[in-house]
Amino acid sequence: MRLKTIRTPLTATAALLAVLAGAPAHAEEPEPVSGDIVTAPGLELRGRFGEDRYDVWANILGLKPHGGEETLVVYCIDIRTPLDTESPYAEGHWEESGVANLEEVRWVLLNGYPNVGAEELIEASGGEVNPDWTDTEVAEVAYVGTQAAVWHFTDGWDLLEDNPVKGGNNGEDEAVLAIYDHLTEETGRVPDPSELTVDLEGEESATFEDGRFGPYTIRSSAGPVTLGAEGGRLETEGGDEVETLDDGEEFWIVLDEDAREVTVSGTAAYDLPVGRVFLATTDESLTGDAANAVTSGESQKLILAEAREGEIPAEWRFALNAPESGETPKPQLPTTGTSLSIAFAAGLALLMGGMTVIVASKRRKATDH
């Protein structure tokens, strides 16, 4: 017995939907953030540019966004320039800042403080937390060690190995140096949000068995994918309801009674520091286009240390046809020979034995929150 095969063409409406949904969708540019700088005492570091000594005070820096209450952690990416605490700061573009090594700085931020907890960072670096330190002092050490690593890449500054912290005789010397070495010795690459994707595999090989279609495989470079469905439900191999799947995990589709179509939606959420740069500006410029900030004079450039939150939504629409009563499905469905990757890219419809699959995959750039 053969699985019922339908060869009727797609309607004009369905074909148009597939083409439109297959095109990449891009999020609108978020409103630039502006805010005021707040500082707290940090630690004085000893370092050098090449053979020339250059010691610097690493203050703890924060940005309090206008209209918000939470103070964001920021780092200096301009070691030679004094900080103007009287002027507001507005978000600009990394290319406009003239600062080097964005990829390395992204990696430092992802693996440094506060994206990694203060005590956890010190211990992961091979350092030790002095039991007499307060929580504030532990955070101070983690921040300063991360700041030293940021300056290494943005300004070409090196932390001294001998007595790197002035007065750091209570373990600060060793802990800050350990963090600095940990964050500068073997940097990796942090992907840009535009490179993250969520895809689906299995349309060409899925079968109908025991009242369900599948398996389908999630492919995600952005982490776990939360799934939902309209017109049916999603199951694991064992029959449990599917909520979230990791890359490479499978699911099956069970159609609702009398349904012939199901829409599967997926969302991958992630946190990723992306190098959002802040430049000093003026109150007057903030009444206009803050994305093109007018600098108020020489002042340190800053970078947001806390993660950017984003999500990548995807959606697939299937027209599924189960075999008629009494028929037995074949172990595997025949295919038309159409390339699945081409179908995804062009938003085409695949006509396969027993299934019409309307691919409506969406890939979006992340949106800042």
TrEMBL record:
Signal peptide: 1-27
TM region positions: 340-360
Alphabetically ordered keywords of this record: Cell wall, Membrane, Peptidoglycan-anchor, Secreted, Signal, Transmembrane, Transmembrane helix
InterPro entries named in the record: LPXTG_anchor (IPR019931), Thioester_dom (IPR013552), TQXA_dom (IPR023849)
Domain Gram-positive cocci surface proteins LPxTG residue range list: 329-365
Domain Thioester: 73-186
Coiled-coil stretches noted in the UniProt entry, renumbered to this chain: none
Protein name: Cys-Gln thioester bond-forming surface protein
